Amino acid sequence: MKGNIIVGQSGGPTAVINSSLAGVYKTAKDRGVTKVYGMLNGIQGFLEERYIDLSDYIKNDLDIELLKRTPSAFLGACRYKLPDIHKDKELYEKIFEILNKLDIECFVYIGGNDSMDTIKKLSDYAIVTGQTQRFIGVPKTIDNDLALTDHTPGYGSAAKYIGTATKEVIRDSMGLVYNKGLVTVIEVMGRNAGWLTGATALAKGEDCEGPDFIYLPEVIFDLDNFLEKVGKQLAKKKSVIAAVSEGIKIADGRYVCELSANVEYVDAFGHKQLTGAANYLANRLSEKFGCKTRTVELSTLQRSAAHLSSLVDINEAFQVGGAAVKAADEGDTGKMVVIDRVSDDPYQCSTGIYDVHKISNVEKVVPREWITKDGSNVTEEFLDYVRPLIQGDLAPITVGGIPRHLTMIRHK
Amino acid sequence: MKGNIIVGQSGGPTAVINSSLAGVYKTAKDRGVTKVYGMLNGIQGFLEERYIDLSDYIKNDLDIELLKRTPSAFLGACRYKLPDIHKDKELYEKIFEILNKLDIECFVYIGGNDSMDTIKKLSDYAIVTGQTQRFIGVPKTIDNDLALTDHTPGYGSAAKYIGTATKEVIRDSMGLVYNKGLVTVIEVMGRNAGWLTGATALAKGEDCEGPDFIYLPEVIFDLDNFLEKVGKQLAKKKSVIAAVSEGIKIADGRYVCELSANVEYVDAFGHKQLTGAANYLANRLSEKFGCKTRTVELSTLQRSAAHLSSLVDINEAFQVGGAAVKAADEGDTGKMVVIDRVSDDPYQCSTGIYDVHKISNVEKVVPREWITKDGSNVTEEFLDYVRPLIQGDLAPITVGGIPRHLTMIRHK
């Protein structure tokens, strides 16, 4: 590659999004690219000409190792949707002006569904206007809802955290016994896809029964049936655990969290920010059974707990970053790197590359057959799919007992 | 020791309460004790004659290692307060009848302030009635509020988790930028003592600014001042972090969480269960500044995240368990094992033993001089005290990517 590279990060944080950034940087440098720029806050910052030369921040191999272990976009991210090309040609002209000024040959964007839309539009514009820059997408989302790739980097670490935290919450809930029992409702991220919520089942093993009930957004949530099931379980055991997706909906299409009128925020893509399903259900349970209830919202840690990242996930995130540079170098554009599962047992994956037009704006949900018939748990097939993705650890590099990250603050 | 030992666990879970149990068991066996019984759900289960022979569950050295890494009371705990002796002599007679039946020479109780009250009453009763059993307390509480001991086992691991999680939440909050800024309010356990909330400052380092504000329950909370401070900070940076104790109170004595009428539960010791301070403050901030807000309740994971335990803490928990058996063997009763800090740098501690009458029902809070003058952060002295307690890791023993615990389920 004769020109330079610019890389950006977009959308919600993951624990390994910077491992992909490290993969882009390392592979670009190994291939002799002169400058690897990082746009700050994605395409939004790029439009304001806010970018850095990554070599000012990544100075040696130890920095690469720290970057792999640093959660949340090192470069900052954005939720910015490019307008359709015909609606704002000037904006596209401005983007390409900046690209030309920096002598960019390859534009890499690490993100989810919405980010792939950016890659699609920019590569379309380049082709239509006869320009030669290449645009490659690198998948990233804890939600695991991107089509065509077996799974997305970020999901494995989130699943490992969720499985581990669920197991520890279950242990905690068994410490004290309450007269009328205790129901713990764990709320997990995932608006339309239950990949994250299903990962609570990873807590199950020879030493732990796992959650009693797991409700994914793929199945309509029946409140009466839920209350009845939990009631029956409370008669059998003193501590009952239910894991629910933030995105579970009742038959009339309303989110469970909307029943308690707790919808706060709509993002630039028109997505509602959902929270409160667990609290609503806990209140209903406590009213009906007089039991003690507790809610655990796994909060932003489920996407940022890099101290518990999966080694498989970190490595794959690094690989897809590198594969993006390789693909651009070989002339690809308008493509996203994907992960193909070559074998289940032993687990083996390789990277591939697909046309981004086939990927963007399609959400991959959990297949119905991986959810139990009554809709209150996941099957062994689901677990067989997830387990390989959570294997191994990359020990945090700690200073004073706390994980060290690579951040821009160090260099101020 | 010619007789047997019985050991129980009481009060809220910690990540290392079972390391103390392992220390009791191992030391007892090394000293040739025939039977080590475990009472199920503490003194409450003991009164129902629910107990196990621990050797049925701890079968080898690997089980000891698993037990050290298993959070929340292996034996189950209780919140049961013994009545005063003169109010229910029959109850005490029943307890000693069971002790005699099992040929118990030493009764070890692992717990916090309330549990030391149990040790005090039982040892008083034995002395008054001329009986020879020995009663020893082993300190345990994430709250670190026990008097006379430098710190309590369980606190170091909680502090390590809180510091790490806070740092990851701070990283996460910097990923996306919001027009009017983002304020993240982290709510931490600790009703009257700010040891846990202060531990959020551990996030601070060369690579992280740490929380902007930290509010401990030791200082009266001034809402207007808080809003003003956060407003000024929002003018300077796009992501502001405030950590607050669940127990912060305003000048008239009301808890901040009570301002939103969210008090749910009073336990057997008359303690209110507090939650909701962060939500209340986030709502006020969002009203006043139109900023985006996020609340992170560290939930029960702050006391149960054994996957991130401090090695120092695990080892000290093990040592105080062993020291309890040794003390009883040497004739002590009505005592609690304590940790004495011999040296700060290098950190060195040894175990000691104190009269439980001096310990029970006294809450140790954070010294005022370890909190900044304006009451919105902790000082370097606070951090110097905490840092040695969070050092080192004991890698989880994982099966299928998830930590394995020692639980009774395995043996069903």
Automatic annotation (TrEMBL), chains A, B:
It comes from the Bacteria. Non-allosteric. GO terms for biological process: fructose 6-phosphate metabolic process. The record marks 114 as: Important for catalytic activity and substrate specificity. Substrate binds at residues 141-143, 189-191, 246. The record marks 140 as: Important for catalytic activity. The active site is at 143 (proton acceptor). Residues 4-327 form the Phosphofructokinase domain. Diphosphate binds at residue 12. The keyword Flavoprotein does not apply. GO terms for molecular function: 6-phosphofructokinase activity; diphosphate-fructose-6-phosphate 1-phosphotransferase activity; metal ion binding. InterPro entries: ATP_PFK, PFKA, Phosphofructokinase_dom, PKF_sf, PPi-PFK. Pathway: Carbohydrate degradation; glycolysis; D-glyceraldehyde 3-phosphate and glycerone phosphate from D-glucose: step 3/4. Mg(2+) binds at residue 113. Its EC number is 2.7.1.90. It catalyses: beta-D-fructose 6-phosphate + diphosphate = beta-D-fructose 1,6-bisphosphate + phosphate + H(+). It holds the Pfam family PFK. Keywords: Cytoplasm, Glycolysis, Kinase, Magnesium, Metal-binding, Transferase. It is found in: Cytoplasm. Its cofactor is Mg(2+). Homodimer. Belongs to the phosphofructokinase type A (PFKA) family. PPi-dependent PFK group II subfamily. Clade 'B2' sub-subfamily. PANTHER family: ATP-DEPENDENT 6-PHOSPHOFRUCTOKINASE 1. Catalyzes the phosphorylation of D-fructose 6-phosphate, the first committing step of glycolysis. Uses inorganic phosphate (PPi) as phosphoryl donor instead of ATP like common ATP-dependent phosphofructokinases (ATP-PFKs), which renders the reaction reversible, and can thus function both in glycolysis and gluconeogenesis. Consistently, PPi-PFK can replace the enzymes of both the forward (ATP-PFK) and reverse (fructose-bisphosphatase (FBPase)) reactions. This is Pyrophosphate--fructose 6-phosphate 1-phosphotransferase. It comes from Anaerobium acetethylicum. The lineage of its organism: Bacteria, Bacillati, Bacillota, Clostridia, Lachnospirales.
